[in-house]
Specification:
The complex is a heterodimer of chains A (293) and B (302). Chain A has 293 residues and is α/β, with parallel strands linked by helices. Helix content of chain A is 32%, strand content 23%. The longest helix of chain A is centred in the C-terminal third of the chain and has 17 residues. The two termini of chain B are 24 Å apart. The chains are: A alpha/beta (293), B alpha/beta (302).
Chain lengths: 293, 302
């Protein structure tokens, strides 16, 4: 056995460049809370291609990646803009294959959450009482049924999710790269432990996490890279740091509704900016223009 | 443990009690329109809220189910336990959440667990009394579609998908469904069964061996429907004030059955309306504030 080295504390562009490659299976998790948007922008900026994107709720972060043409496949369980409506880029990819065809592998939340648990547990599939009677089964060979060897009861089985890379955002890391997150935890811990490599962006790096004994801490040696990116979960939120930017989620409905508008937004905010700081400056400008109208 | 305080700034003119005696022959109200002193949407939400018993453990969907469940908590059911799929158990939000994972849900909950735990220990574990769902399409046997209109592989309209609904529909002891009634939503045949009601009726659901009993009620802006005890076909058991049978039929794509005795839903009480409007006013103000703060992309400390 080789020892497990601690995570490298590095810049976000360097982490993405060294840890995510074309064709990788990538899970960028965070259930409404702590969605790693800044990392998503950097993946787009580095023009990564043919990714299989895994996420329970694709949210605006995957709408952007899909619209930018980074993905060839999406694994998901609920694909809407929360509290707003449709994800237009996701729909355009599924309905019209724009900008590139997008294969989908679809589960329920229970199925995909269990699949992450199986991945983190290093077993090939998850067993759950689910999917009976649902048409999801008819359109997926990844949802099957098995008989319990003890009782004979028929139960659903879904294959483990084992991403090449998990990407999450958290509140804090210490200087060794141990990471603390709290609030709505979603499946971040499971995604991090199911993946071969894990990139974490954090709000701040501190001397002491001051984590209570049962807190959700991911030890540095389970992670690959830790990057200090304050505000990196915007427009989702970071509990204790900033609130969800509901305006952005509503605004995204307009930005993303047509291909031209989306492309213009993508060019100005992501492709023409060097990094997340510059993105933030440009976003502030464009939002000011919006509200001045 | 529950904040039952109402907003002191409520406009008394808007929250005063019903001024009309309702009868079955009252002027029909268009969906969403204001009928007398309450809207059909308010009637729908209030009728659904009334069904949720105090101390029930309720797995709540976002949108209309969340509004109705929180109204129940703020009126007759202060000890109802609200569980959201993002992880909060015993959430008591001050305003209605916009997303299923708003911070207010976590801050006001008895505890917050991970999403796998919510589905494994709490829903699959058999601890949910009521699953409260919305729907894009529903058929006469209360099967629900939230996945796709048209062919799955060549969709006319791709909808968000399953989320937590299939397992809520199968594992909760009972399921409440709430949605506005239109002929596009109440269809003869849904394009995709995302979440199972009674399949093709009769004992079909029982034969599948699902843990929960399935939908017990569908509440709309026009009426209350319940599955027939034998056939499991949705049957109108109560019409909301001012709603005629013809309106229900016009908003339903299959020939609607009415129970032998169709009740009339009691109109909203002043307290119900006041609580609902206060909740929605607080929610609008809170999310307006989010809009204002969101005009800068610069995150700030709370």
């Amino acid at each position: 056995m080789s020892p497990s080295p601690n995570a490298t504390i590095t810049s976000l562009p360097d982490a993405i460049r060294s840890l995510i490659h074309d064709g990788d299976v990538v899970a960028m998790e965070g259930f409404t809370h702590l969605i790693p948007f800044a990392a998503g922008y950097e993946v787009i900026r580095q023009r990564l291609k043919s990714l299989t994107l895994v996420r329970m709720t694709p949210d605006v972060i995957y709408d952007q990646l899909i619209g930018a043409g980074c993905a060839s496949k999406l694994v998901f369980s609920w694909g809407g803009n929360p509290g707003v409506g449709s994800l237009h880029r996701l729909r355009d990819a599924v309905e019209q294959s724009w900008p590139v065809p997008l294969a989908i592998e679809e589960y329920s939340h229970a199925g995909l959450a269990n699949a992450y648990v199986a991945g983190a547990s290093n077993i090939p599939f998850a067993v759950l009482r689910a999917y009976t009677g649902s048409d999801l089964v008819k359109h997926s060979d990844r949802i099957r049924f098995i008989d319990c060897p003890f009782t004979g009861e028929t139960l659903a089985a879904v294959p483990a999710v084992r991403p090449d890379v998990a990407v999450i955002h958290a509140q804090k890391a210490d200087r060794k790269g141990n990471v603390l997150l709290w609030g709505i935890l979603g499946v971040q811990k499971e995604a991090a432990l199911a993946a071969k490599r894990c990139v974490v962006t954090v709000e701040e790096i501190v001397d002491d996490l001051q984590a209570p004994p049962n807190a959700c801490v991911l030890p540095s040696w389970t992670l690959s890279a830790v990057c200090c990116v304050p505000g990196g979960a915007h427009p989702s939120y970071a509990h204790g740091y900033y609130q969800r930017d509901n305006f952005f989620y509503q605004h995204w409905d307009t930005v993303s509704s047509a291909r031209e508008g989306f492309n213009a937004w993508l060019q100005r905010h992501i492709l023409d900016t060097e990094n997340f700081d510059e993105f933030r400056r440009v976003l502030d400008e464009s939002i000011s223009e919006q509200t001045a109208d | 443990m529950t904040n039952r305080t109402t907003d002191a700034t409520a406009n008394p003119e808007e929250t005063s009690g019903p001024q009309v005696e309702r009868s079955g022959t009252a002027t029909p109200a268009a969906p969403g329109a204001r009928s007398a002193n309450f809207t059909t949407t308010e009637m729908m939400t209030i009728a659904a809220a009334r069904l949720l018993k105090n101390n029930a453990v309720c797995f709540v969907g976002i949108g209309l189910p969340s509004t109705a469940a929180n109204l129940a908590r703020l009126t007759h059911a202060p000890d109802v336990v609200l569980i959201y799929e993002s992880g909060p158990i015993g959430a008591k939000p001050h305003v209605l959440p916009l997303s299923i994972g708003d911070g207010d849900l976590a801050e006001t909950a008895d505890t917050v667990v991970s999403t796998p735990e919510i589905f494994r220990y709490w829903l699959q574990g058999g601890r949910i009394d009521v699953g409260f769902l919305g729907a894009a399409q529903i058929d006469r046997f209360a099967n629900i579609n939230t996945t796709v209109i048209g062919d799955y592989h060549h969709p006319k309209t791709r909808l968000p998908g399953a989320g937590g609904a299939p397992e809520i529909a199968s594992s909760a002891k009972e399921v409440f469904v709430i949605l506005k009634q239109t002929a596009r939503a109440f269809v003869e045949k849904i394009d995709f069964i995302t979440s199972v009601g009674f399949l093709d009726g009769g004992d079909a659901r029982v034969r599948l061996g699902l843990p929960g009993n399935g939908p017990v009620v569908v509440v709309t802006d026009l009426c209350i429907m319940e599955p027939d005890p034998q056939t499991k076909e949705l049957t109108v058991t109560s019409l909301h004030p001012g709603v005629a049978r013809e309106q229900v039929q016009a908003a339903t794509a299959w020939p609607v059955r009415f129970a032998a005795q169709v009740h009339q839903t009691s109109p909203p009480t002043p307290a119900e309306l006041e609580n609902l409007r206060d909740l929605e006013r607080r929610t609008a103000i809170a999310h307006q504030r989010s809009v204002a703060s969101g005009s800068s992309s610069r995150p700030r400390r709370d």
